[in-house]
Amino acid sequence: MPTLAPGPKGLPFIGCLPELKKDVLGLMMRSFAGYGDIVRFKMGPMTIHLVSHPDDIKRVLKNRNAFDKQTRTSKVIRQVTGESVLVNNGDAWERHRRLLQPAFAPLELKRFFTVISEATDELITELETIADRKKPVDIASYMMRITYRIIEKSLFSTDANTDMGALEQAIAVVLADTYRRIEQPFSIPHWLPTPRNRAYHRAMTLLNERVYLLISEHYAQTGDDLLHRLCRDTSFTDTEMRNEVISLLIAGHETTANALTWFWHLLAQHPDAEEAILSELPNGPITAQDLSSLEATTRTVNEVMRLYPPIWAIVRRVVGEQELGGYDLAAGSSLVISPYVVHRHPEFWTAPDKFDPQRQQPDHHYACIPYGGGPRLCIGHNFARMEADIIVAKLMQRFRFKPLPDHPVEAHASIVLRPRQGLKVIVESR
Ligand code: HEM
After folding, report:
1. Domain that holds residue 130
2. Which of 8, 28, 165, 234 has its Cβ near the most Cβ atoms within 10 Å?
3. Protein residue with least CA distance to atom 21, ligand 1
């Protein structure tokens, strides 16, 4: 007899599906508090385990073959990216990861410093035109724009004169479709000619045309951006290159954008944290050397990502039957590791709900996993850390973002954790 983990019963046939749709973060937190480190959920025909102890998380994330990414979410994402490091498994994943990894090595990051810095300067110029007008703006959409510009410039070295708006637009359409399909298991298939599906197909066609064109141009010319590096140093076929480029465009902006949006939200409520950052910022331009001394900035960004991890769920398939934390997990079932839950685990975090940039990091490496862990640790984690620090430091030198007091800020757990209605602020000059 298998030893089954405890969990909420839910409704007959559909299990916890309605609760999951209504408030997935609340469902996870309540279940973790009520049933412990491994919780078993029934969702219609599916069994899903929520795994929240860092020891168990370590075992899952380190063992990529026993717990792979052959999941429903990956299947939906694959429709856009094809086989790529984001979604593939086994030897194929290993080869792609090995080929991509050198481009993200810490030493390579220096070249991205200028890209990030320049893109932030462009945003500063734009914000100067609206500052002190007392007109609310959605800072979330500005964060999306800047992080998209940064990944695009890093990949293709496009400048303000290159018309890349169509590509950005196409990615937004394709991502919105992907999110809808992940959130709604029973979506209208792509082959039905609905207006939404037609828009999706138009966006995919444009995305493919543009990305293949950029790849052929990069093969033909010399240069030093990320795509030039991949064209020069890897054995990717054109299709593989297309898949990886689209994956990096997708994975490399919305996560950081939302981390930054939550940052502005929390900073506005914690003037002491704001003060600590302001007091360490240099008066003049921020250089790459300055970054390592921005301790309060980094600590605050980390604390924001503890409370609001942009990737709030890491999903795996249990390949063959497994025992985990004393319970049996069936072959083919799914498991979820939620950084949102683990980052509030009371055995590893004191006063977990308190925002405290000064807090001690727990000894257990897997108690703090905003970028995942093990062999599939986020490939862009060093890039994202540097990007967030530069954007925060440069924007804080110039502006204060004052949230509108009556604007509701509610966490919405789509693929990425974001404020459901953005973050409306008034931009003030410092
Ligand atoms: C704050 C920003 C970011 C966060 C919170 C984040 C989070 C994550 C997490 C949790 C994973 C692991 C998913 C899993 O194990 O299933 C991951 C994987 C990945 N991330 Fe990020 N990420 C961020 C930024 C970036 C950036 C800037 C890039 C690219 C430039 C990137 C590219 C990737 C890729 C390609 C993977 C798949 C790695 C693999 O499976 O081998 N991410 N990210």
Report:
1. 17-354+376-429
2. 28
3. 378
Rounded distance between C-alpha atoms, residue 292 and residue 12, angstroms: 55
How far away, in angstroms, is 1 Cα from ligand 1 center? Answer: 38
Task: Report helix angle 295-307 to 381-398, nearest 10.
Answer: 110
Residue nearest to atom 6 of ligand 1 (CA): 371
- Tell me if 82 sits within 8 A of 93, measured CB to CB: no
Q: pTM for the complete prediction? A: 0.95
Residue 3 counted as domain residue:
no
How far is C-alpha 226 from the chain's CA centre? 20
Overall number of domains in the chain: 1
Report the CATH number that the domain containing residue 37 is assigned in CATH.
Answer: 1.10.630.10
Ligand 1 atom at minimal distance to the Cα of residue 385: 1
Q: Distance, CA 255 to ligand 1 centroid (Å)?
A: 8
Q: Is the minimum distance from the CB of 311 to ligand 1 under 6 angstroms?
A: yes
Q: Give the model confidence (pLDDT) of 45-84 as tens digits.
A: 789 999 999 999 999 999 999 999 999 999 999 999 999 9
